[in-house]
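To fix ideas at the outset, we first show an illustrative case, written as a sequence plus integers encoding its fold:
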Amino acid sequence: MKAQVECYAGGSAPETPRTIVWEGQRYVVKAVLERRREPQGLGFLIHCKPGEHLFDIFYWIERDEWQIQPKGPATSQQKPNDQCM
């Protein structure tokens, strides 16, 4: 199954992930904790709800494809205040 990520895309590339679907469950992004740019694409560490889950997601530019890697529950240091983006 292809990874599903909805995001705000400005200019020419995804800038801010909004939702993901992982193993049939839809998660809403509460916060982007980290952004990184690599030669192959863009990576984000995101904090999602329901629950307090962390995911590392990566957008492969050449393939126009997302990869989702679960990182487990968020620790108290990784949880943003309850503001959504």
